[in-house]
Amino acid sequence: MRFPPWPWLAGLLASLAVSAVQAAEEYSFDASSFEKKPFELGGFVQFKQEDFALNRDGAFYKLGYFGQSQRASLERSTATAELTGKLREGIGTFDFHTHADLQRDQLGHAQNNVLYEAAYSIRPDPGVTLEAGKRTLRWGKGYAWNPIGFVERPKDPNDPDLAREGYAMANADLIYNQDGPLRTIAFTPVLLPVQHKVNSDFGSSGHLNPAAKLYLLYRDTDIDFAWQGQGSRPGRYGMDLSRNLTSNFEIHGEWARIQKFSKPVTDTLGNVGSTVGNATSYLAGLRYLTETDTTYIAEYYRNGTGYSSQEAGNFYQLVDTAFAQWQQTGNGSLVQRALNLNQGSYGRPNPGQNYAYFRAQQKDGLGIVYFQPAVTAMLNLDDHSYQVMPELLYTGVKNLDLRMRYYTLQGKSFSDFGEKLNSRRLELQARYYF
Amino acid sequence: MTIRTLLLTGLLTFGVAVQAVALDGTKILEKVDRNLEPETYEAYRQLIDVQPDGSKKEYVLYTLKKGRDKVIALFLSPPSDKGRVTLRLGDNMWLYIPDVGKPVRITSLQSVTGSIFNNADILRIDYTAEYNVAATEEQADAYLLSLKAKTNEVAYDSLKMWVDKKALLPTTIEAYAASGMLLKTLHFKSVKDFGGGIKRPATLETDSPLYKGYKSVMLWSGLKKGTFSDSIFTLNYLPRIQELRK
């Protein structure tokens, strides 16, 4: 046997051999550890720090801080845990999604435990699914708003991708596929009960509310027809569509009509009446990806149940009048009336009638892989008030998302974003998945 | 024989020869498609993104393909992406994220993982479904196929594919934009017998002049023929894809 002439060469060869083995091992993959298990558990824990610059002249600040010590800023820390799980047995699956959060700020602390979803489903055939339990059904193609989201809690346009609490319901999914221009037909019937302690925020109790969605994939276009029968809420129907005009350019739209919709409207003195009529909402949007991996999302939203600038202005005037009266006379009855209206449709995140939404996000921003800067703007087209939100997201660390957002709201007195609770907000968030 | 007849005969012979070469190229590509995967199959894949500093990000996908243009990929790992599903029906692609709760349309040039592999690589359908053979060249150990996209919807305008003559499997593919710019190079390695008559590369590495220093690797495991209902390849079924796995 001959030996290499220099010991260092032998060492080098040995290390190269080890490296070669390591490189080979590096790229071996055995999928057996990823086979389906009868029970699965996952989720995330999250810590969020928010600093609010409060808008002390805003109507919603006055209502939100009524009877409390007045302040110019607020720092809030929130710890959140969400747990998801699945239990499988035969053709049946039970799955759940829980949410728990603990908030602490200078005013105190609060705890919130919510069961987002818990449902049992069976699939006797791939084309047939029957399900009962608490479920979040999300209908519509819009990114920030969904006029045909008939059986879901409203989404937060500031964070449209957040998980939300569902409703208790029974539903089914029937899927049929074929060749030809109409490739897919899928029908989703829903029964949603409302009783004293079941889905009580959906509408008036004592109803078993029917709803349904019909999905078609026709000539490469997604089309949905949605309907919800009259019951706890007024009856409504609508449709949406989405298609790619080119591989990097998508358009979408939604249209919905609510029949005999009753809208509470106040004057500047707190006299509340109702207008009843059919309300039509619609949305048109697009998503465009550039060659440099910038994604643009733009949407126009017509909110048929919203308030005109005049109607919203009357409410803001009422708040001003109510607080002036309370400060001068100590009589808080008008403030209470404004608070009641704030609990209803005047206090929605987007109570106006015409909105524009714009978002631009850059993949691998500044040449850093997994770094995504973005900017989002929302504009009330009637009073020209707006909100702008720059955002930085980094997902380069395994199972960890780091995000920073800064909201700034601008608008004159008696305008949508000019009367919000805060004028600026800084948000830092770390989320760890397990 | 007149000059006219000679010319006509010559033209016809040349035409038939050109057609035969083009036909051979198409047949080679059809064979490559079937040698890479059965038309309908299920498989597990691991995607590894290697950054210039050596750090890695890994994903595991469960994949189903039916026919020439229906593909689904379900993310099993890491936990931050678990439950995400991508669906491709021809030129249409959607991404389902459990928290968002509804599918959104995505494009072939995007990457759901953020890696050099884009959605068209991850949800690849048959090459013959997307490309025509523009030219075929015979080399010492390989055929070099020049492929041209059938439509503007295809992720890459053209491909240069080196095919091993014996195995009729690709060894290297260069992907080009319409401008002629090289977008990425795919290297097929480690031919492995998956059983059931499937013998194909178990490793696919890619690098790109647009991502200098970065590398992405795709590893195959558990590749086997399957039979699946068309109902699975629909938007309504995406939240339930996990239940299909054995």
The proportion of residues in beta strands of chain B is 35-45%
**Count of β-strands of chain A:** 18
Uncertain segments of chain B are 11-22
Q: Approximately how much helix is present in the residues of chain B? A: 10-25%
> Uncertain spans of chain A, ≥5 residues at pLDDT below 50?
1-25
CATH topology of chain A: Porin
CATH hierarchy, class of chain A: Mainly Beta
Query: Level of helix content of chain A?
Result: 10-25%
Number of helices of chain A: 4
Q: What's the order of the H and E elements of chain A?
A: HEHEEEEEEEEEEEEHHEEEEE
Judging by the overall fold, what is the CATH architecture of chain A? Beta Barrel
Structural class of chain B: alpha+beta
Mean pLDDT value of chain A: 92
- Global outline of chain A: globular
Question: What number of structural domains do the residues of chain A give?
Answer: 1
> Structural class, judged by helices and strands of chain A?
mainly beta
Query: Total domains of chain B, how many?
Result: 1
CATH topology of chain B: outer membrane lipoprotein receptor (LolB), chain A
Can you describe what's shown?
The complex is a heterodimer of chains A (434) and B (246). With 434 residues, chain A is mainly beta. Chain A has a single domain, classed as Porin, CATH 2.40.160.10. Chain A has helices at 7-26, 59-64, 309-329, 333-343; strands at 39-54, 73-89, 92-105, 108-125, 128-135, 167-177, 182-194, 207-218, 221-228, 236-246, 249-266, 272-289, 294-302, 354-362, 371-380, 386-397, 400-410, 422-433. Chain A has an 18-stranded antiparallel barrel. Chain A starts with 6 loop residues before the first helix and ends with a strand. Residues 1-25 of chain A have low confidence and may be disordered. Chain B has a single domain (6-244), classed as Lipoprotein localisation LolA/LolB/LppX (outer membrane lipoprotein receptor (LolB), chain A, Clam), CATH 2.50.20.10. Chain B has 3 helices and 13 strands, in the order H-E-E-E-E-E-E-H-H-E-E-E-E-E-E-E. Chain B has a 13-stranded antiparallel beta sheet. The longest helix of chain B has 34 residues, at 3-36. The radius of gyration of chain B is 20 Å and the shape is globular. The model of chain B is unreliable at 11-22 (pLDDT under 50).
